Fold:
Amino acid sequence: MAPAVLIENLQKHYGDIPAVKDVSFKVEPGEIFGLLGPNGAGKTTTIRCLCTLSKPDAGKIEVSGISVINKPRAARQRLGYVAQEVALDKVLTGRELLQLQADLYHLPSAFAKERINQTLEVLGLQDYADQKTGTYSGGLRKRLDLAAGLLHQPDVLVLDEPTVGLDIESRVVVWDFLRQLREAGTTVVITSHYLEEIDALADHVAIIDKGAVIAAGTPSELKDRVGGDRITLRLREFSPMAEAEKAKDMLQELPFVEEVIINTAQGNSLNLVVKPQSDALMLVQQSLQEAGFPTFGIAQSRPSLDDVYLAATGQTLLDADLAAAGMRDLKAEKKQSMR
Ligand SMILES: Nc1ncnc2c1ncn2[C@@H]1O[C@H](COP(=O)(O)OP(=O)(O)O)[C@@H](O)[C@H]1O
Ligand SMILES: [Mg+2]
Structure:
């Protein structure tokens, strides 16, 4: 059976910005596939190319064996797309918006009517169907977007950061719904910069950073690959690099320590990978004390997808997001000051 989605060596530039440099991944039919990465990584660009909304510079994209590039119309029938933010007409009712979507996909009118009712019901929107969407809450809007994406019964539903800006209750509704879709055999591709979301939902995940896939597998494979438990420690709030490196050299000599990474985005804190053993934390603390290092904070945890990201890029996903936000702020400031 052909994969539900196949992307090979995708490239896409905007002027001289390389939004996607080299992205490849495969999605099996009936799974939830997560594309995880910080803001600006190239997630939206990738899935816009997948959904025929943007033309790639190079690479291969197939949906159930159909080339998205050579047969965009046929591919589009099999794909449902839920954008991150949809600028929908607020004066239309939910039902009217779904009718527009049905027209867009040339659904025969009797079938469309039935399908609209069915979809409204599945998403618990019947009571709101004839209200203007301008009155909808964020959670209701997202449910309507999902309904629109699913109306033509696509094999693959693609969602771009579907839970951004939603409260936790609405998030849980979306997650439950995506799991139900999987149960019913629909393939789901979801982008997110929330680690926990991808960890909890996705059967397979590709982690994308600066336009390239840096790790791929099941969440547990990826976590196993980065190895044992983690110990995160800070000598000071901001340690001088020389001190952090001295501590790193010392800690690396401990027999149960597998790896030490200095996290420059977090005041040169030290991230240790240790063999799972109950006294690791205590032994690290003891060694630091004996060697005369201060300890500002120390904690132990099981590996997370953030550790996978950290191991591959040298910073955490959250820091990468903050850095991306900082860049945006800086750019905005620059624009302001040029006025
Ligand atoms: N229409 C566009 N014009 C110019 N640059 C763009 C455009 N869309 C995205 N980019 C840039 O491409 C990079 C990847 O963006 P995007 O695919 O939106 O990432 P993500 O969805 O992971 O946040 C970013 O540097 C972004 O600023
Ligand atoms: Mg995006």
Notes: Residues 14, 17, 19, 37, 39-45 surround adenosine-5'-diphosphate (ligand 1) (CB under 6 Å). The longest strand covers residues 17-27. The mean pLDDT is 91.
